[in-house]
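Cross-check.
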Amino acid sequence: MIKAQRGTKDILPSDILTWQEIENKARNLFQNANYKEIRTPIFESTDLFKRGVGDSTDIVNKEMYTFNVGGGDTSITLRPENTAGVVRSYIEHGMDKLPTPVKLWYFGPMFRYERPQAGRQRQFHQIGLELFGIPDASADAEVIILAAEFLKANGIGNLVVSLNSLGCPDCRNKYKEKIKAAIKPYLENLCDDCKVRFEKNPLRMLDCKNEDCKKIFEKEEIKKVINDDFICEDCKNHFEELKKYLDKVGIKYEIDKMLVRGLDYYTRTVFEIKSTALGAQSAVLGGGRYDGLVEMLGGKPTPAVGFALGAERLFSLIEKKEEDKLDYFVVSKFQDVAIKTVFELRQKGYSADFDMLGRKFAKQLERAGKVAKKAVIIGEDELEKGFYTVKNLESGVQEKVSSL
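Predicted model, tokenized:
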């Protein structure tokens, strides 16, 4: 028997209503805030992710599904995330000429080659939004507020926003050098990945999950550098404005100096939203500002901010939606009459079905009781006298009607 590939899952009919509910809530909330849906291809030029996501990230180094196509040197990659693809589309289609801000949202499959575990698959789905053109912290605040509102709409409570500012490139580069100087004496004790990050992107070391590395970063002289207020005056004012906006609408937050996120394109604001609804606090969603990415990928300098969350993770946390019962199930031994009646009911906007196997009356009625609110019974007497018997399958009450 051929089975689904490791790290992939079928979304079965028993779960699809919950998935549709998640997507519908995203569409309603984001479109009410004037975000327009965008759907980008599931594969892009490999260079897009190397330049956009960053060649020092685990995603680019270890997790991408990359192929050479057409027997030549053309390299394509199944998208491991969608911000780079949305930015590519923004540039390619001249969206910078649209009225500012440009607000986009998406929902679709992503691909990363990593060890499958609960809530993490090799093919997974992301919901996210991107806001282009606004440098003010009001854009960061809106994105964080919408992220929190989306989680609340799906029944996720006890939310805490973790915030940090990575600063602009200038102040961040100075910070990187300070981090490198503090960590250099312990370089040989770091994991192999962090040794590479030390040269390519030292801030990514702070995102390392290796326990030995975490212990090194807890050393007093290193923590002092991490906790240093390194950002410049403009970045500091931007961060203070963001906090002021969040205070105004009652969003609770905490400052986490270790928060850097896993992608190279972030500048200034980075955030995660965590929930304690299931006991231990765990991140459900993350995002931040990426003011340099549009220019890096060939567009005009454009401030931008956004977030994304894994839909599988969200699915695992929320109450599952039960399938609605049909309005009617037609019970009859006359298949031609049953088909005609079902067709007419559907034409009127009702949900309806019938027994295609021609089973006995009792079996059909039993089936009706499981899948429908009402049964339309058409026997010889009903056909001869021109009426329908309609049975309410919840109350058991029957009535004869001339039309449905």
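The mean pLDDT is 90. Residues 4 and 10 are 8 Å apart (CA to CA). Passed to J.P. for a second look.
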